Amino acid sequence: MNSSSISDHETSMQRCMELASRGRKNVGNGAMVGAVLVRENKIIAQDWHREFGSAHAESGLLNSFTGRIEPEDILYVNLEPCCHQGKTPPCTYAVISRGIKRVCFGMLDPDERVAGKGIETLRSAGIEVIGPIARASCEYFNRGYVSLRRTGRPWITIKEARTRSGMISHDDGSTLKITDEEQDVWSHTFLRSCHDGILVGVETIVRDNPFLNTRFAQRNDLTKVKNYQPWRIILDPSLRIPTSANVLMHSRGDTIVVTSDALSEGGRVAEDALHDWGVRVMQIPLREGSFAIPDILRLLSTPRDDFHGLSSLLVEGGERTWKGFRSSGFIDEMVSLIGA
Ligand code: AOF
Ligand code: ZN
Predict the structure, then answer these.
(1) Which amino acid residue places its CA nearest to atom 18 of ligand 1?
(2) Residue ranges covered by each domain of the chain
(3) How far apart, in whole angstroms, are the C-alpha atoms of residue 221 and residue 137?
(4) Taking ligand 2, which is a single-atom ion, which protein residues have CB atoms under 5 Å away?
(5) Is the pTM of the predicted complex or chain greater than 0.85?
(6) Whether residue 89 has its Cβ less than 6 Å from ligand 1
(7) Between the CA atoms of 283, 287, 291 and 293, what dihedral angle is there, to the nearest 10 degrees?
(8) Can you tell me the distance from the alpha carbon of 299 to that of 114, in angstroms, rounded to the nearest whole number?
(9) Which CATH number fits domain 9-142: 2.40.50.140, 3.90.79.10, 3.40.140.10, 3.30.1360.70?
């Protein structure tokens, strides 16, 4: 062990994750990564992976830090430094060539191009490598990325709200306000702000006309990002979303409508209109009248043009959509808010 205590390491790793969270959604189907350079218990440089295809956290930090590196300096990064040539050069190269002598990492990289080889490369170059530090919290923080690399699909959280008697709407199907303000603050802060996308079926848009934003979110260590807006994803096979829907009124560029690849003539006209408004319309086949969940997940996690894919999804309803996801077996977490 070196002179820094474990709690110093954990504090610095926490800082890496705070920085990393600024890249949420913008890093597409990649990892959220932050890096800090610590000298005598003070952060002297920091950076994060800002967006898909841009510099990795530690390379960005080392490229912009022009000062001298001292042998006692520790470079912290919440993900094992990569050792492969991807969209950018390997981070291990930047670390070794800048003369870093100590690296502390949060978790091994599940990407098979790295998977321990980044650490080996650093150790073979004579660098002291400490870690994994706070592995469980680093893995949970990047659960979307980890899920994509390990299982090939995004992390999926289901959120539902029911009254104590089990109702989700009035008997006639009309909207029933179930959660109170405190529950809304909680779910905007810890659910909506912690996922890349919120997904609903078009029936929820028609009945409830939700905004699907994070207006009640409170700032905390990992959701400090101002004005974070997750993708809003609406499953709408025949494109019947009302043009007056709230999700089409505000930040339309963050709205994705998933529809059939065999639209009727009327559907194609609606598609053109949405497109002109700046809404993203994505098309997949219908299978016996419904979308297949694996098709949806592949569509949403695969980069295409200026859409870089997502790694985590919050499924907010309604009944048909919950059912589809439940029966797919692809659920990682379920949150049930019980109203009065
Ligand atoms: C790091 N630091 O900040 C990030 C890493 O598509 P690319 O070229 O950006 O490569 C993506 C892979 O790079 C990703 O799967 C993971 O292995 C690593 N991401 N690594 O050392 C970073 N973002
Ligand atoms: Zn890298």
Answers:
(1) 82
(2) 9-142, 153-338
(3) 13
(4) 56, 82, 91
(5) yes
(6) no
(7) -120
(8) 25
(9) 3.40.140.10
Are 141 and 222 within 8 A, CB to CB? yes
**What is the residue type of 208?**
D
Kindly give the distance from the C-alpha atom of residue 2 to the centroid of ligand 2, in angstroms, as a whole number: 25
Contacts 24+ apart (CB under 8 A), 266-269: 267/238, 267/239
Atom of ligand 1 nearest to the CA of 49: 3
CATH dotted code for 153-338: 3.40.430.10
The active-site residue, picked from 10, 18, 40, 58, is 58
Q: How far is the CA of 238 from the centre of ligand 1 (A)?
A: 38
Cα(89) to ligand 1 centroid in Å equals 10
C-alpha 118 – ligand 2 centre gap (Å)? 9
Residue 105 identity: F
Identify whether 70 is a catalytic site residue.
no
Structure tokens at 160: 């539902």
- Residue with the smallest CA separation from ligand 1 atom 10 is 86
Please state the atom number of ligand 1 nearest to the C-alpha of residue 91: 21
pLDDT, one tens digit for every residue, the chain (340 residues): 444 566 789 999 999 999 999 999 999 999 999 999 999 999 999 999 999 999 999 999 999 999 999 999 999 999 999 999 888 889 999 999 999 999 999 999 999 999 999 999 999 999 999 999 999 999 999 999 999 999 999 999 999 988 887 777 777 777 777 788 899 999 999 999 999 999 999 999 999 999 999 999 987 766 666 789 999 999 999 999 999 999 999 889 999 999 999 999 999 999 999 999 999 999 999 999 899 999 999 999 999 999 999 999 999 988 899 999 999 999 999 999 988 7
234 lines ligand 1 (CB under 6 A): no
